[in-house]
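Sample intake — RNase adapter RapZ
Collected from: Variimorphobacter saccharofermentans
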Amino acid sequence: MRFVIVTGMSGAGKSSTLKMLEDAGYFCVDNLPVQLVKKFSKLIMQGNQSKVALGLDIRSGQSLREMDTIIQDIKRSNIPVEILFLDCSQEVLVKRYKETRRNHPLSGVGRVEKGIALERERLYFLRKNADVIIDTSHLLIRDLKAQINKIYLNDEGFSNFYITVLSFGFKYGIPVDSDLVFDVRFLPNPYYVDELKKKTGNNEEVRQYVMASGTAGKFMDKLEDMLLFLIPNYIAEGKNQLVVSIGCTGGKHRSVTLVNELAKRLNNTEYGLKVEHRDIERDD
């Protein structure tokens, strides 16, 4: 029996997640009145449903506050309940609401930012008690689906800390959502080698050229060591995602190579990982 309560910030992907869980064989119910949640949990224990997901969000109004007590009661009844909290950054949520031209449930005709801030405050107790937190700020739908399947279909381990390693070109600007930025323009540039100029760091010839100097390998060793030191400290301070940006001039050769190398090194860690090459398709 697996009973998952899906909640989180409005606009963070709760509806999409419920659809994904439904596709994965879960019996899904959305926006059930809070007063019925305890009775619902008892009914599913008596039924033949082995996988159930219940969507709850700020639309429940003031009664949502009762969920803290209700969840504790459910757990004391030995019903295996889990909380999945979908989070998202303020900036991305505002952008999503502006693109869809929808009003935030708590903003009315006022500013979306205020509604989001109030919702975050009211949902804090659910986030604090969540078993899984997925930050969708940098996730495409396919990335979110992969995470949902990993946790709730394949029963694989999951870390609430998510790392995005991103390559970029300085001539197109530093990614605004970067937490850590590294400049690798000190490495030999394949752009000036005729047979490599039109290729990218995803090609083996370019990778070998960049890594051949030895300096790149030493840099990777130091970067990996620093990140493995920093990440547990970020987690201790409550951070749940990290964007590591590596830049070269055009974002096609050196930065792509090193992002791929870093991803290989971090792939065996317990943390979630995403690789992105922002400028690899740009024209020179």
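Post-analysis note: Residues 65 and 143 are 31 Å apart (CA to CA).
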